[in-house]
Amino acid sequence: MDLDKITEKPIRIIGVPMDYGASHRGTDMGPSALRIAGVAPKLRKIGYQVQREAEIQVPAMETREARNADARFYDEILTACSELSEAVKTVLEEGGMPLILGGDHSIAMGSVSGVSSYFRQQNKELGLIWFDAHGDMNVPGISPSGNIHGMPLAHLLGYGDDALANIGGFSPKVKPENVALIGIRELDRGERKVIRESGVQTFTMRDIDERGMAAVAAEVVKVVTTGTDGFHLSFDVDGCDPSVIPGSGTLVPGGINFREAHLLLEYCADSKMMTSMDVVELNPALDIRNQSAETAVQLLLSAFGKSIL
């Protein structure tokens, strides 16, 4: 057996086929691509029980109209994230471990809200690893595009729109000192100020280049486990270099390579404190023969404890 399990809890996969938050169509097909790549059977193969999958029902973009230029498809995203929050919380209450397949990164407002709500009921603190090429710390009014997939982390920290920040009935969802943002290499001008003032721990590609992934990964895990009772991993595939995962609409050159990503996720598994995970921004319409989904599943398995020996 090549597995050192991070948990004995059964995994419950929740698909969120949504691309309202992004400029490029296609991330709504992300959950299907990951399923075709065998995420559930491969988790079973390394020893996990994977329960019957669930899915948040998201109407096709063509049936809706983006009325708010500062926060496109605001109502639809708020509804989907609110439903996802409740679904994630229920999985945790029933003794499972949520694995959420997106969808664009706006879904993380629902993922993290659900975990945080569950922790809050027990007076526990949640850590958060945000793996991403971007800061995702825009808010309505400063975002150049109005795309909400560039805003989820800001709202989880209590900035921006009141309703988005208060999914689940409270805000913030995480304390800034318990958040590690890793892989960033492209920021909008307005969000730089928000990031600097927020107090989140940032690890840019320069940090990884200068210090090496082993040192950075160890510090990331320390940030999200010190004074917390576990952490959520929000994994945006564009945190990886485009040569590793080309199937995303938000590609930025100079990202994390294949082995570096594996090493970070192995450190996450070694901590045995990962409570939940989401995988987002996979766009099969921009991929080549589903290779990005295949790679994403390989990386995901490392986060769940698959190792070389």
Written account of the structure:
The longest helix has 20 residues, at 74-93. The chain has an eight-stranded parallel beta sheet with strand order 2-1-3-8-7-4-5-6, with helices on both faces. The N and C termini lie close together (9 Å). The mean pLDDT is 95. α3 crosses α4 (108-121). With 309 residues, it is of the alpha/beta class. α10 (258-271) links the parallel β7 and β8. It is built from eleven helices and eight strands.
**Contiguous uncertain segments of 5+ residues:** none
Report the biggest beta sheet as strand number plus sense, adding barrel if it closes.
Answer: 8 strands, parallel
The chain-level mean pLDDT equals 95
Number of helices: 11
H/E series, N to C? EHHEHEHEHHEHEHHEHEH
How much strand?
Answer: 5-15%
Q: How are the strands of the largest sheet arranged?
A: 2-1-3-8-7-4-5-6
| End-to-end Cα distance | 9 Å
Number of strands: 8
Task: Give me the secondary-structure topology.
Layout: E1 11-16, H1 30-36, H2 39-45, E2 54-55, H3 74-93, E3 97-102, H4 108-121, E4 127-131, H5 152-156, H6 162-165, E5 179-184, H7 189-198, E6 201-204, H8 205-211, H9 213-225, E7 231-236, H10 258-271, E8 274-280, H11 291-303
Parallel strand pairs: 1-2, 1-3, 3-8, 4-5, 4-7, 5-6, 7-8
Helix pairs in contact: 1-11, 3-4, 8-9, 9-10, 10-11
